[in-house]
Design goal:
This protein has a single domain, classed as GAF domain (Beta-Lactamase). By secondary structure, it is of the alpha+beta class. Strands 3-2-1-6-5-4 form a six-stranded antiparallel sheet, sandwiched between helices. It has four helices and six strands. Bound molecules: methionine sulfoxide (SME).
Length: about 160
Amino acid sequence: MAEAFNDLSLPAEKAERYRTLAEEIASVLDGEPNLTARMATVTSMLANSFEHYFWTGFYLVDPARPRELVVGPYQGTLGCLRIAFGRGVCGTAAETGLTQLVADVHAFPGHIACDGRSQSEIVVPVFDGAGTLMGVFDVDSDQPAAFDLVDQQGLEDILSKLFT
Ligand code: SME
């Protein structure tokens, strides 16, 4: 299945596409315990499956600085290396443990512009099997209001099964 994977083989309808991707991702990652491999793989598969994704990747809690996120596996233009809890959209998701769906990043207090082309974004907190925050998954778009509840549901579903 992994060999045949590409966006052309996926359904056009967005909710269905997320559901099919969830199955493909589970199949590709089956038996692979390495966290970097799991994060890099899910980032690649998601980034290459949706036109509206511009920057896609993880910010992880730094074990040496537990109130700080440090960039993890990602696809896209150069991302900021570190984000403090409570700062910008990623820091707010980390602080609250809640998904942030932002239609206009310029209207979000403290938004961090790693790339000026970013217009909207969704950030989903990621937890381990014990319920401890591991970090967040950030998707930015260069189109305004690019994400909706279908993206939220699809991403939360995929990410909630990744590290548990
Ligand atoms: N937009 C994010 C920062 C990370 S990047 O854009 C890759 C934020 O405000 O949290």
